[in-house]
Amino acid sequence: MRYMTAAVVVLAAALAFAVPSARAQSAVVKAEVLKDWTGLKDTMMKIADAMPEDKFGYKSTPAQRSYGEQVLHVATVNMALLGTIGGTTAAPTINAKATAKAEILKALSDSFDYGTALINEQTPDGMLQVVKARFLGESTRARVIYFLVGHTWDIYGQMAVYLRLNGVTPPASVRP
User: Fold this and answer.
1) How far apart are CA 152 and CA 149, in angstroms?
2) Does domain 27-173 sit in CATH 1.10.275.10?
3) What is the pLDDT of residues 132-170, one digit of tens each?
4) CB contact at 8 A, 158 and 68
5) 27, CA 20 to 30 Å: which among 68, 96, 130, 137?
6) How many CA atoms, within 13 angstroms, populate the side-chain half-sphere of residue 149?
7) d(C-alpha 81, C-alpha 146), whole Å
8) Measured between alpha carbons, how far is 174 from 176 in angstroms, rounded to an integer?
């Protein structure tokens, strides 16, 4: 009985320290998700803006999306999945058929701002709660954001090629 009592006391002490640790970890997850999301917005706005307006209709091959369509694709996929996270922030209206550079850049910016607002609405523990996400099924809110981050980096790589094919160095590759 004495050993069992000691084991219970040790287990209770371990759990007491584990709970704050788990809470601290979920706060770190939320902070890192937000940092990566807002950093990606900056990167994407720079690469999207780097293409001259008269080249926003450029396609590397006829079967591919145009440069402007690539940017809009990021914005529309962001919007489709961000809505599954939940929150009170109203979703912006995005014109998925936009062709003007300014309207396309605004759509991209608005989609990232919407994500930032939704992330900020979540509690640290809320980032680890499971939601039903289009294309992903049941996923944590953090996983939904990181899926969007991965998707966006994929499109970024395609956009970098489009820029180079038009004699433009992607902003992240410019060296002083």
Assistant:
1) 5
2) no
3) 988 889 999 999 999 999 999 999 999 999 999 999 999
4) no
5) 137
6) 17
7) 11
8) 7
